[in-house]
Amino acid sequence: MNSMIMEHNMIYKAKLKKEFLKQKDGYLFILPQMLLFLVFMVYPVFEGLRLSFYNVGFVTKTFVGFRNYIELFKDSIFIKAVLNNLQFVLIVTTLSVVFGLFISTAVFDKTSKYMSFIRGCYYLPVMITMVAFSITWLWMVNPAMGLVSHVLNSIGIQNVNIMGNSTVALYILIVVMWLFNLGEAVILYLAAIIGIPQEQFEAAEIDGASRFMVIRFIIIPLVSPTTFYFVILCFIDVIKVFLAVHLMTAGGPNYATTTMMYLCYQEAFVMNNMGKASAIGMMMFVIVSLLSIIAMTRLKAKN
Amino acid sequence: MALKSQKIKRDKLDIVSNIVVLFFALINIFPLYWMFSNSLKSSNSITRMPPEWIPQHPSFDNYVQLLSSQNVISWAFNSVFISVLTTVLVVFISSLAAYAFAKLDFYGNKVIFVIFISTLMIPKDVYIIPLFKIMQNFNLINTRLGVIIPNVALPFGVFILKQFFDSLPNALRESAKIDGASEWTVYLRIIIPMAKAGIGALFILVFVRMWNDYLWQLIMLSKDSLKTLQLGIASLQTENVPNLAFKITGASLAAIPMIIVFLCFQSYFTRGITLGAVKE
């Protein structure tokens, strides 16, 4: 009897060991990625939260509690930055969705070459990189030698300093961001529309629907997952706008085009206020996390 | 490509729409033309008003001068180095993890994956300041390695590859295991060759992302010889450069490498965008 129990024990232990050995491969394979993830993604977020409660100078750190956050909310420049971000996000996203749908529904059933050509044209700003795109636009709106100034001069509007005007400068930035994001919208929507089964179109044709009706009542509802995905993507992409502001307006004129990320950069590396900068980062983290949660729950609901 | 059969009625509205589409397409193409044509002008004819729509004496002088007076070659090398190394590391490390999440059985597989992927949409920018401080502590400021490492930590690669691996059939893998192959062998000899398409798409996506990772490179690299191409060209805008044409020529130089990459790897790229997108 004893030997039977011992044998059972040994078999059981051997099974456990085999299970463990089988499991170890999984853990080993995910180890490098997880390690990097913890050290360079999770830890910084917590560290950011911690730093936001300090006044971080060159050498010393002093604990200041919520002072950074309070100062930010009282700062009119920060409020302006948040409002700017809001304008950026809402206008760029809406325009990109509307135009993305408009363009893709106009070209999806034309020849393959035409479709590729249009796709390429609209993706061009992304292809030449944001740096080159921003510089070129800055060049074009330059008051002394820019194209836009020349065109305005020739229709009688003299001495226009486009980037010197607070509102106009912001809108120029919005146009640049919009054109940049439009390319992605066109690509995503075209891919989605091509995936629509032919029967849908045939049924509509039998019912005698006009092109506009097909677009409005069949295509647009069917690509709504793409719309949802793109809206979230666009939101997150635009809310962290930095490059265009940095290169084209440096936040000006007079902080008129400042955004949260630009302010964060200024606080950290110009005013040497890493604590306050971390606070701005934390607030952006909350905003992005909320958007992310909305996206994830929607995805889960679908599955 | 557009299915020939997928046609719906074309009418006047359609023609007008396409005219509008073409008009805006031109608005997109024009800056590119303007950038190139200006880079070929001499610096006095650049500032001439009314502007020369077609350069009268086009020459590559600006390019020659720019390349010889600034660190452009170093900048380009840095961009390539950082982008390629990041991409290689991402492909390797994330494919290991993606394979484990997709095919291997271990306690906590689903939970860990869900937590990991839930951070997918969090951009680096929101924790970039503390990340900088951490890199300071590791003494990795002003190093290319410092720029690379935090980008390999992102869950993007795992997200894309796991979907891909999920769709790979198990048969080959199972028979290899019966023959006694270790997981490592299965990964190396079987899965990776099967996943070439997904890996290709990931490669191009990460490469482009890293090439354009401006803010992180800006705060990490202050030494001129270490700057990336985007960073260096951007710095030309604020400096007092002797030749005004440098600014627009610089933009052109910043644009050319990516245009070449896009033209050569088009198919990988379109596959990559839609892989990450709508999954029905």
Can you describe this structure in just a few lines?
The complex is a heterodimer of chains A (303) and B (280). Chain A has 303 residues and is mostly helical.
> What series of H and E elements makes up the topology of chain B?
HHHHHHHHHHHHHHH
Helix content of chain A: over 70%
Strand order of the largest sheet of chain A: 1-2
Poorly predicted residue ranges of chain A = none
Number of domains of chain A: 2
CATH class bucket of chain B: Mainly Alpha
Protein structure class of chain A: mainly alpha
Shape annotation of chain A: flat
Name the CATH superfamily classification of the largest domain in chain A.
MetI-like
Total helices of chain A: the number is 13
Largest sheet of chain B: none
> What multimeric state do the chains show?
heterodimer
Q: Would you give the CATH topology of chain B? A: MetI-like fold
Largest β sheet strand count, sense and barrel closure of chain A? 2 strands, antiparallel
Distance N to C terminus of chain B: 19 Å
Structural class by helix and strand composition of chain B: mainly alpha
- How much is the radius of gyration of chain B in Å? 24 Å
What is the beta-strand fraction of chain B? under 5%
Shape of chain B: globular
How would you describe this structure to a colleague?
The complex is a heterodimer of chains A (303) and B (280). Chain A folds into 2 domains: 2-51; 67-302, MetI-like (MetI-like fold, Orthogonal Bundle). In chain A, 79% of the residues lie in helices and 2% in strands. Chain A is built from 13 helices and 2 strands; from the N terminus they run H-E-E-H-H-H-H-H-H-H-H-H-H-H-H. Chain A has a two-stranded antiparallel sheet with strand order 1-2. The relative contact order of chain A is 0.12. The longest helix of chain A is centred in the N-terminal third of the chain and has 50 residues, at 2-51. By secondary structure, chain B is mainly alpha-helical. Chain B has one domain (72-276): MetI-like (MetI-like fold, Orthogonal Bundle). In chain B, helix 4 (72-103) runs parallel beside helix 7.
